[in-house]
């Protein structure tokens, strides 16, 4: 895609209020179309577009989500950026999949978390699992977002840039550990000079998490 055309599509997506990650996914899908035909996407006609979707379904055997993203991205580009409304977009409908989700047992989750040695990563993954968060929601989480008194976690800028609150499981008191981490950072140098013999224990998902204070301080 030429730079002016790419910039116009970006501006169109910004006007529609698309999130940054959605913009990246749309640009990638359109660029894949351009690479397939080895020419600028504005030079692709409707028949070529039809054959591309058949290629994704019959030859590449792309997953339903991949086909859906390709359809939404390419449709947006042609209809909004180029102003072309083609009947092909009405024909393409990725087949619905009926799959049961893979659900790990509590013991399997416990063993996975026990393999995570870095305290902050282990706390982050534990919160993501216990509260059912998306990956980026857990990564962006801050100490101030955890309300231990009311048992809530404030999720900021979630999917669709929406905030929401999710319950913190009653057996999960990770917020105490997070507050401890925040306090320990203030005493990092003194803790390293005079390591304390005791440790901090936190119960999460039925598993005791044992972290040396010197490790948390770092």
Task: Give keywords.
DNA polymerase, domain 1; 5 strands; mainly alpha; two-stranded antiparallel sheet; single chain; three-stranded antiparallel sheet; 11 helices; about 220 residues; 2 domains
Shape: elongated
Helix content: 40-55%
Summing up helix and strand content along with how strands pair, one would put the structural category as mainly alpha
Q: Into how many domains do the coordinates divide?
A: 2
End-to-end Cα distance: 46 Å
Order of helices and strands: HHHHHHHHEEEHHEEH
Q: Give the oligomeric state of the chains in this entry, treating copies of one chain as homo and distinct chains as hetero.
A: single chain
> Could you tell me the strand content as a percent range?
5-15%
Give the spatial strand order of the biggest sheet. 1-2-3
> Largest beta sheet, briefly?
3 strands, antiparallel
Output the radius of gyration. Answer: 24 Å
Given the structure, what is the number of helices? 11
Query: Uncertain runs with pLDDT below 50, 5 residues or more?
Result: 183-218
Q: What's the overall average pLDDT, rounded?
A: 77
How many β strands by DSSP?
A: 5
């Amino acid at each position: 895609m030429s730079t002016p055309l790419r910039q116009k599509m970006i501006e169109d997506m910004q006007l529609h209020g698309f999130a940054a990650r959605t913009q990246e996914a749309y640009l990638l899908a359109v660029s894949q179309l351009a690479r397939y035909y080895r020419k600028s996407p504005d030079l692709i006609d409707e028949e070529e577009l039809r054959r591309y979707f058949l290629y994704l379904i019959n030859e590449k055997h792309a997953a339903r989500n991949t086909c859906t993203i390709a359809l939404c991205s390419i449709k947006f580009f042609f209809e909004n950026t180029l102003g072309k409304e083609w009947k092909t977009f009405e024909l393409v409908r990725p087949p619905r999949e009926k799959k049961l989700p893979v659900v790990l047992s509590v013991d399997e989750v416990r063993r996975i978390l026990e393999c995570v040695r870095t305290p902050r990563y282990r706390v982050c993954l534990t919160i993501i699992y216990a509260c059912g968060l998306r990956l980026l929601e857990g990564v962006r989480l801050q100490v101030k977002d955890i309300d231990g008194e009311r048992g809530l976690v404030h999720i900021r800028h979630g999917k669709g840039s929406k905030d929401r609150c999710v319950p913190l499981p009653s057996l999960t008191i990770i917020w105490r550990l997070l507050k401890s981490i925040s306090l320990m950072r203030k005493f990092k140098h003194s803790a390293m000079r005079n390591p304390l013999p005791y440790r901090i224990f936190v119960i999460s998902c039925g598993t005791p998490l044992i972290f040396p204070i010197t490790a948390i301080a770092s």
